[in-house]
Amino acid sequence: MSEARPLPASLATARAVAVPILPLRLRGVGLRLGGAVILDGVDLDLGAGGCTMVMGPNGAGKSQLLKLLHGLTAPSAGTIDWNGHAPQAVRARQALVFQKPVLLRRSVAANVDFVLRARGLDRSRVSALLDHVGLAHKAAQPARHLSGGEAQRLALARALATDPEILFLDEPTASLDPASVQAIERIVARAREGGTRVIFVTHDIGQARRLADDVVFLHRGRVAEHGPARDFFRQPRTEAARRFLDGQLVV
Amino acid sequence: MQNIAEAFSLAFALVLSGDADLFEIVALSLQVSLTATLLSCLIGLPLGALVAIARFPGRGAVLVVMNALMGLPPVVVGLLVYLHLSRSGPLGFLGLLYTPTAMIIAQTILIAPIVAALSRQVLEDLHGEYAEQFRSFCLTRRQIVRALLWDGRYSLLTVGLAGFGRAVAEVGAVMIVGGNIDHLTRVMTTAIALETSRGELALALALGIVLLVIALGVNAGVQALRMSAVRQAYV
Amino acid sequence: MKHTLSGLALALGLAGGAWAQDQSILVQSTTSTANSGLYDYLLPIFTAETGITVNVVAVGTGQAIKNAENCDGDVLLVHAKPAEEKFVAAGFGTIRTDLMYNDFVVVGPAADPAGVAGMTDVEAALDKIAKSGAPFASRGDDSGTHKKEVSLWNAAGIDPKTGSGDWYRETGSGMGATLNAGIGMGAYVLTDRATWISFGNKQDYTVQVQGDEDLFNQYGVIPVNPAKCPSVKAEAAQTFADWLVSGAGQAAIAGFAIDGQQLFFPNAPKM
């Protein structure tokens, strides 16, 4: 089941109509973990709409950047400003799909229901959400029996259940088979079309080409390059980005 | 050795004869210890879950105390409960001394720390896996506790079993607060103690065998439940 | 959650049913009377006559008195006359009545290392045991039997405490546990005859010293004083005490026998 059905309109309209939390503005953001410098002096501006792909060699701090933006960790220096809000304050309006999906020890449907119930949302949407990610036929099965690709799609359904304004994805397709990758990309693309702001960490250059509106290239804890996808892939401005796209810069 | 062989045949004979007194004692043992286990879970599981997820100053000391309380001597618990429930004690007006309720109270005090300390360990491990995802979901502490208790339910069954095992096997506390009154507060362990003091060693041992078989039955039931959960990947 | 709570209520409710009897009293008594099976024989007769259920907590005399002083009982039935009289004098009991007696015996292994078998002078026998250094197991628990034993040592002019941990072994346990321990270590034991006759783990032990008047063991019955303990069921307690010392009760006590041997001898004063 790799076909992503369109998200019914009713699912997308429940969105909060509060003051938008974009644009996002980072100034001088640094992060140290146990003495190691992970991020250092990150400046970044992200506007409303679209899909931002965050790329960079291993250890560049991509995952940590997502956690900072989502308010799961606090920066050691600098400011993160979601249109006047601190990250922790707007976490409920965002969702994060982890690289390794953390599924509850319950059925597939109960995993989605859990989030709806915890957040006081309409619990009748479970089947629509599962249908949307192509898992309706597995609703009653134990979530932990799903394949890697199915598990990640369930994580996506759970993330979409809260109608997030921002959808973070942290290498969600790493080590998945091509069909699963395609299915997940399709779901993400639909979310983006529905107006969800997507911020997507990936290692996969092909995936970035397929999905990106703009690209943030991280290198050694800093934003080495940030620009429209077309420009980045055609003519990267930095030596590091060029070598990364050539497959020479891995770490 | 003769006693042991005699005890086994006596145990069989007792069970097969359908001895009414034996069944009464077994039923009371189960009733008291299962109720105490249930109460201990109601108290100990949320407590264990809270300590598992909370970070606060003095947490290390709380953990030490919780773990130390697992070793509470039953006789000491029995004495404390006796002093409170005695007619001349602060709760004497309740008239609970020498009743199954008093025995339930004593055993609950005895095993609630065990349930709390062991569930804390189980749930802390589980929370290590879930914590970041739960924070992303913006769950309240109450929601986290409930989710951990539910998802850890099959592992927590083992914790409950540990508590039940301790309760059903202890004699010191129920002897003091129950009084080992025939047809009223006599349970397996106090009956065993009584037969030992009567010098009826084979009968005492036979009762011990029956108790062991009951404990085996309860454990096997829980194990079967757990196995089905493992097959569903719910553990 | 609802399920758990109703399940709990059910469990507690069931637990509650068992003792929800109005006409029942609690007797604080000694292991010697309970272990011998006297109550199993006596109480059904009393209940059949009066409809009153009697529950018995069997502990050492010291603990039984302490429990009764805490108002955790309606009747005290023990065997330590001086302590009982103190109990009444302090106002905890209404009146003490002699009820019955049995006697103490010294049991020992067939080998009889102190050579006391057949003696009828208990003080002389204790003296022999102490001098021979043969082990002697004492209750050491402030029970009626223990108090009796201490008074016998005193009468013999021996302080066994000097051999404590050596030949004089204080178990700190009930009669049965002390017999088990004593038999296990080949020690002499002072026990009441009732417990001994019904004891199931005698091995090669026999009664070796008996018949001394100093070995008589007087039991008394005392209703707990409602003035001191308002919670006691004074009327039912008095009914029980009255019945025990009545002709019917005394006859019932005399009728209790194991292996054809009478264990307790009624001696309540004639009304």
TrEMBL record, chain A:
One of its GO terms (molecular function) is ATP hydrolysis activity. The keyword ATP-binding applies. It comes from the Bacteria. InterPro entries: AAA+_ATPase, ABC_transporter-like_ATP-bd, ABC_transporter-like_CS, P-loop_NTPase. Keywords: ATP-binding, Nucleotide-binding, Transport. Residues 24-245 form the ABC transporter domain. The keyword Membrane does not apply. Pfam families: ABC_tran. PANTHER family: ABC TRANSPORTER I FAMILY MEMBER 17 (PTHR43423). This is ATP-binding cassette domain-containing protein.
Automatic annotation (TrEMBL), chain B:
The chain crosses the membrane at residues 32-54, 61-85, 97-118, 156-181, 201-222. Residues 26-222 form the ABC transmembrane type-1 domain. It is a multi-pass membrane protein. GO terms for biological process: transmembrane transport. GO terms for cellular component: plasma membrane. It comes from the Bacteria. CDD domains: TM_PBP2 (cd06261). It is found in: Cell membrane. Keywords: Membrane, Transmembrane, Transmembrane helix, Transport. Pfam families: BPD_transp_1. NCBIfam families: ABC_perm1. Belongs to the binding-protein-dependent transport system permease family. This is ABC transporter permease. It comes from Thetidibacter halocola. The lineage of its organism: Bacteria, Pseudomonadati, Pseudomonadota, Alphaproteobacteria, Rhodobacterales.
